[in-house]
Write a structure and sequence with these properties.
The complex is a heterodimer of chains A (509) and B (253). By secondary structure, chain A is α+β, with helices and mostly antiparallel strands. Chain A is built from 15 helices and 20 strands. In chain A, the strands form five sheets. Chain A has a six-stranded antiparallel β-barrel. In chain A, helix 7 (151-160) crosses helix 12 (223-232), helix 13 (261-281) packs antiparallel against helix 14 and helix 14 packs across helix 15 (358-377). The longest helix of chain A has 21 residues, at 261-281. Chain B has 253 residues and is of the alpha/beta class. In chain B, helix 5 (119-131) runs parallel beside helix 6. Chain B starts with 9 loop residues before the first helix and ends with a helix. Classes of the chains: A alpha+beta (509), B alpha/beta (253). At the A-B interface, helix 15, strand 13 and strand 15 of A face helix 3, helix 4, strand 3, helix 5 and strand 6 of B. Strand 13 (382-387) of chain A pairs antiparallel with strand 3 (111-114) of chain B.
Chain lengths: 509, 253
């Protein structure tokens, strides 16, 4: 069975944020040479004349020119999140089939299900397909389903012969009758081959099948012949199943409530030991743990814990959990506790070194420090930072999470395009409005009052015009000046070109 | 304690005794580590250890916002980080601007930003960071801090071997402190680059005093020492010539 979710990146967002249904949604991605292009767009955007592959600047201009009533919502295309959500859906579908996978391509939009022999369980293949479709409708998705003897045929029919609300069921003897009139793209051919076939005037699969096999292979490569064989069942195709990861958790209900910290810590230690054993058996380490304590009045309190590096050490986890519990406001009396590992990663083990490198030993100490700080102060209180290619200072950097991630992505250092004395070490956010004296309306500042002190400008550098992207909801157009007062103090001022006056944005401390 | 030979050179005796006193005062600190050069010969010369000593605390006293103490302390951090380790930046006020640090040559991959909600949490976290051998520098604006907390920070730095660089207001000048060095930074008016006056206010292990003027190149940020007040006369004269009215006339008006 093939279950296709048309325009999946848009569908995913519309289900996650139903308020976007009132807007024209456009997803864009950055192309090295062409700049920002549209990667996907909703029906409302398409009706307004936008299409995939159009440049974002052109799309915005077109949208403004046609004075569309529907607001345009722009968002960055995120194929990783799309795949992740589709994988989640595959795991969610496990009650319908033991073998569910994603179609094998860079950006999958379909689920492939092996439903061999399940008709007896559900009554028939049709009933199974109808139930699955209804389940997706309840989640808010609009899929197109097709059931066929082979995965290739099911994929082609769902994508090019599907009917909304009606799962298509094709028997073995009807495969080529159904596939024949469909375009060659229904065979999952490469883009180049589809274009070539179109140029040659081959618009249907039945035309393609009439071509001699040897000529087909020599002209188009092995791809069309293989796809035809897969659709016919001559070549086996397997579903790479997306099984839900094993759950690591331990729970304990108590007959008598506990109300003292050492006893609760002992209980958690026992549960952590069980979880650590489960993790060790799978050679995994915990990256995120959640501890849930149930009170005698039915109340529940959760304590999440993120880790910098995966670990399966009971003592280490207990130390972090105990530190977190010190500031944790939970039920006074505990009648039950659950420790669950929500994210795992392969456990890292290091061989001891006879002559350890002192420069690398620091890294080993840093992990426990980050875990300790995050455990007590929260994951948001301890972050890494990376610069972003944005001109607007407030957006020129972003935080990088240090705990609770499966793998540490190496961040690429972006080139800094300004000199060391051109940006202040302290940025004032939001900028502080200033009373500034300037001779010319567009001229540099001569004096300003800050914190009750009047500063006279001795030297200035600028203006440096900084504007943010037009796609930002609130655009900024500013002329920045670095100024040095007569006493030598340096500040970063800007004039808002929309006539909102002068602001202080930074101090060169 | 070994008593040096009395008939030896007087300077050698003084040097030996000074070393003994230092060892007593900084008993727990690893004295065999070489100090880290500040990257500026004049500043190295001003510092008693001829550089930044590992496991120590340095207070940078700023005379006001935009005064340049943060910039010089960031330059110190950059030099310390060249030998590896991480840098922990305390940013409770949410005002630290990482692109500026990157422009000064700090590798942001080595940076950990700490955003605690209270000063108590921040002090605890700073102590933890200073205790950690993987942390080379802790950089933090520090407000009022009790002697007990400061002492804990100092002991933590001695344990971990990192260097604490604390930005403080010049109002704390003269007050008791557990830091090893106290440097006051005052901006100066200049015709060329950014000029900053650095004064060694306090040193735990040697005599304080001494000041230098540094100038940061506008384009490259390269720091060099300049003669003190070599432009003050010219600046003053130019200002007087440019003034449109005399003080008496403006007072009458």
């Amino acid at each position: 069975m093939s279950l296709w979710l048309p325009n999946w990146p848009i569908q995913r967002r519309l289900v996650a944020q139903p308020e976007l249904k009132q807007k024209a949604v456009v997803l864009h991605h950055q192309q090295p040479r062409s700049g920002k292009l549209i990667a996907a767009c909703s029906r409302a955007a398409r009706d307004g004349g936008l299409s995939v592959g159009m440049s974002l600047a052109e799309a915005s201009g077109l949208w403004k020119k046609t004075v569309q009533q529907t607001p345009l919502h722009l968002e960055e295309h995120d194929p990783t999140a799309d795949r992740q959500q589709l994988t989640e859906l595959a795991r969610w579908c496990e009650p319908f089939s033991p073998l569910i996978g994603l179609e094998t391509c860079a950006e999958p939009h379909s689920l492939l299900l092996d439903i061999t022999g399940l008709d007896q369980l559900f009554g028939s293949d049709e009933k199974l397909a109808t139930q699955l479709q209804a389940a997706f409708h309840r989640l808010g998705y609009r899929p197109l389903l097709a059931v066929a003897p082979t995965l290739g045929a099911a994929w082609g029919i769902s994508h090019h012969g599907g009917v909304w609300g009606e799962p298509q069921l094709v028997a073995k003897e009807q495969v080529w009758d159904t596939l024949g009139p469909l375009p060659p793209a229904a065979l999952r051919l490469s883009y180049e081959n589809i274009r070539l076939l179109d140029e040659l005037g081959i618009g249907q699969i039945q035309q393609l099948r009439r071509l001699p096999r040897t000529a087909l292979t020599s002209r188009f490569g092995a791809d069309p012949a293989l796809r035809i064989d897969q659709a016919a069942g001559a070549v086996q195709e397997v579903v790479v199943a997306e099984h839900a990861p094993p759950e690591y958790f331990a729970a304990r209900n108590l007959e008598h409530p506990l109300n003292n910290r050492p006893a609760i810590a002992k209980l958690l230690e026992e549960l952590l030991r069980q979880v650590a054993r489960q993790l060790t058996q799978q050679d995994r380490g915990a990256v995120q743990i959640e501890c849930c304590l149930s009170g005698s009045q039915g109340q529940q309190a959760r304590l999440p814990l993120g880790l910098h590096r995966p670990t399966a050490s009971t003592g280490y986890l207990l130390e972090l959990l105990t530190a977190g519990l010190e500031r944790f406001v939970g039920p006074r009396e505990i009648v039950g506790a659950v420790v669950q590992v929500t994210t795992t990663a392969p456990w890292e083990s290091h061989q001891g070194e006879l002559f350890p490198d002192p420069s690398r030993s620091g890294d080993r100490h840093l992990g426990p420090l980050i875990d300790r700080l995050a455990g007590r102060l929260g994951a948001n209180a301890i972050v890494g930072v990376q610069t972003v290619a944005e001109a607007q200072p407030e957006r020129a950097f972003r935080d990088r999470c240090l705990v609770g991630e499966k793998s540490r992505r190496k961040t690429r250092a972006r080139a800094v395009w300004h000199g060391p004395l051109q940006r202040p070490l302290h940025l004032i956010h939001p900028p502080v409005r200033l009373e500034v004296m300037a001779i010319a309306p567009d001229g540099p500042p001569l004096a300003f009052v800050y914190k009750g002190t009047r500063h006279h400008v001795a030297r200035h550098w600028g203006p440096e015009r900084i504007e943010n992207g037009w796609w930002r909801q609130r655009s900024a157009r500013r002329d920045y000046y670095r100024v040095e007062t007569k006493q030598g103090y340096r500040f970063w001022l800007f004039r808002e070109l929309r006539g909102e006056g002068w602001f202080l944005h930074g101090e060169f401390d | 304690m070994k008593i040096p030979c009395l008939n030896g050179d007087a300077e050698a005796i003084v040097a030996s005794l000074t070393q003994e006193v230092r060892q007593l005062e900084a008993a727990r600190r690893v004295l065999d580590t070489q100090p880290v050069s500040s990257g500026v010969a004049a500043l190295d010369h001003l510092l008693p250890e001829k550089g930044w000593q590992r496991g120590s605390l340095v207070e940078w006293l700023s005379s006001g916002p935009g005064g340049g103490a943060g910039t010089l302390s960031m330059l110190a951090a950059r030099e310390i980080l060249l030998e590896g380790g991480a840098m922990v930046v305390a940013d409770r006020a949410g005002r630290f601007f990482p692109p500026a640090a990157a422009a000064w040559g700090i590798d942001l991959a080595q940076l950990i930003v700490l955003r605690a909600k209270s000063q108590q949490d921040e002090l605890w976290a700073l102590e933890q960071a200073l205790c950690c051998e993987g942390v080379a520098v802790v950089w933090a604006p520090l407000e009022k801090v009790s002697a007990l907390s400061f002492r804990r920070l100092q002991l933590a730095a001695e344990t971990g071997g990192g260097i604490g660089l604390f930005l403080r207001s010049s109002r704390v000048r003269g007050r008791p402190t557990w830091s090893d060095l106290q440097l006051a930074v005052r901006p100066q008016s200049s015709q060329h680059g950014r000029r900053l006056n650095v004064e060694l206010v306090r040193s735990r292990n040697s005599t304080a005093g001494g000041q230098i003027d540094l100038e940061l190149d506008e384009l490259t940020g390269v720091v060099r020492e300049v003669e003190r007040n070599d432009e003050s006369h010219l600046v003053s004269l130019a200002t007087q010539l440019a003034h449109p009215t005399s003080p008496r006339r403006s007072a009458r008006a």
